[in-house]
């Protein structure tokens, strides 16, 4: 089986629509055999995946170093440990998730009983992004396997060391008759997207999200789109400023140097409070990354020269010239950009018109903090939104009025680590959600089953529809 896997994943052999069609046909046959439905198969594959992380943590850390200069602690904590946790939650809960749910019936069907049976969807496609290449590839795969599907994973070509390690390790550890990796870029993904899938789970930007959804529509295939957006942080003055500053830094620069979908994109605070906030951020940043952050091993680099050029353009926009209050250093040869704060950025600047996805953090200022809610709701719905405050009323207002994929009060990004919370976007930030049981549900069909016996065969539903029956 591993040789087959090498054939389809090798970049030298073209992976075209015919190859994609053959791959799907083979997986459909495997799915139709019923093997992936069994509890034992699901358990064995989840256990194999979990073992893979135990056996190859160092290789994963090295691949992420190659692709992103990702600090080892971030790789272990946010990719390996999170995935191990997903596997262990799924292994622990699988029996319960698979158990059908008995539900009440109505008088109209008396006597009867009913249940909701979770059945696997079939053959599913997972397309993932480069910034957390292991987590974003394998966390959906955990859900797909737990729900009993056959799955094809297409990792991102922008993180090539991680992509090829994923292909190798899944080839070595998993049942390749039902779980496969296809490496490649636009051509290979397009060939995959021409096929009929039972679900497509895509992580990446909204432009490609639209391509995925359009391709899926041809086959009426349901999609999950895990997209991005501009995730705001509202900062009130009633806070422990030092802790807030550290938590903002951890979610921004401590998450792949801002190249994370739920990293704070911009801050909104009041004009009065902004200088204090900037000072606290500067102080903590210097403690974390030293006086020369371009040399810090605790910051990821920018993934490639295209993204470096994109971020440089955001900084060179003349609407933000003179607004840099911290950082702004770049080293193009090493693809490094230092943590950068911009104060009083105009809302019509380039940096405020697209998701930043990098180490630049603009701060907008308002007269009254309540205005920040209007600013946020005037834009596209973000994937995450954060507020730092101890003001109960403000907290409640934020939770009730801000529409975003997820919210965190007095921290950033950590909702991602709570497997009992659904993770996904709303509006432009995505369609559908996953994590924990939500992953299982995302890859399952909830089949409605009603049980009747031959008792109580009420004549009222049968013709002739007499006046007496009509009055009942
Ligand atoms: P990317 O460049 O790795 O692209 C994602 C996937 O789309 C890749 O597998 C790529 O091969 C494929 N692709 C690219 N162009 C394509 C095309 N024309 N047709 C078909 N497939 C194509 O990643 P990206 O888009 O740069 O990722 C960053 C974006 O993803 C940001 O917006 C970020 O917020 C979002 N993101 C969201 C999440 C989440 O969980 N919601 C996680 C990470 C990133």
From TrEMBL:
GO cellular component, one term: cytoplasm
A Pfam family annotated for this UniProt entry: Aldedh
Domain Aldehyde dehydrogenase: 14-449
The entry's keywords: NAD, Oxidoreductase
Reaction(s) catalysed by this chain's protein: an aldehyde + NAD(+) + H2O = a carboxylate + NADH + 2 H(+)
Positions annotated as active site in the UniProt record: 226, 261
Any one GO molecular function term: aldehyde dehydrogenase (NAD+) activity
Gene Ontology annotations of biological process type: aldehyde metabolic process; response to abscisic acid; response to water deprivation
CDD domains in the record: ALDH_F3FHI
Alphabetical list of PANTHER family matching this protein: ALDEHYDE DEHYDROGENASE, ALDEHYDE DEHYDROGENASE TYPE III, ISOFORM Q
Family: Belongs to the aldehyde dehydrogenase family.
Stated name of the protein: Aldehyde dehydrogenase
